[in-house]
Amino acid sequence: MTGLKVCTGGCHCGQVRFECTTDLATVTACNCSICTKKGLHLTFLPPKSFQLRAGGESLKEYLFNQRAISHQLCSECGVEVFARGTKPDGSEIIAVNVSCIDGIDLAALKMTPIDGRSR
Q: Which InterPro entries match (predicted)?
């Protein structure tokens, strides 16, 4: 996929919904413990490119390890929709679970491998 595109998406049960603007040029395939166990494929956005449209009250936060990334899961269906964190320079970042984007075909995307297991 090339060029910025407005995408919508959400969790499995539909309580949590979002809209984001992304080009999906970089979608990660990370091998860290959480990404492996959850099957997460993420794209990273500045907060201004992400809007939570519904379900903020349904979100449950999950923190682990260094507690630096705030994983946001639907409390009803358990799907991790996105996460909030900070980049090494201190700026805020949103990590969108690409699998939650409406109509997405993961097989059509180029995945960028990330060795999170060794960090």
A: CENP-V-like, CENP-V/GFA, Mss4-like_sf
Q: Which candidate, 1, 56, 66, 65, places its Cα nearest to that of 27?
A: 1
CA nearest 34: which of 86, 83, 90, 94?
Answer: 83
Residues in CB range of 6: below 8 A, 6 or more apart: 19, 20, 21
Per-residue pLDDT of 22-78, as tens digits, reads 999 999 999 988 899 999 999 999 999 999 999 999 999 999 877 788 999 999 999
**Domain assignment of residue 119, yes or no:** no
Distance, in Å, from the CA atom of 63 to the CA atom of 61, rounded to the nearest integer, reads 7
74: region left, alpha or beta (phi > 0 left; psi from -120 to 50 alpha)? beta
**CATH code for the domain of 94:** 2.170.150.70
Q: How far apart are the first and last CA of the chain?
A: 29
Q: What is the DSSP letter of 89?
A: T
Range of the domain at 56: 5-114
Q: What is the CA radius of gyration of the chain?
A: 13
Q: How many CB atoms lie within 10 A of CB 39?
A: 11
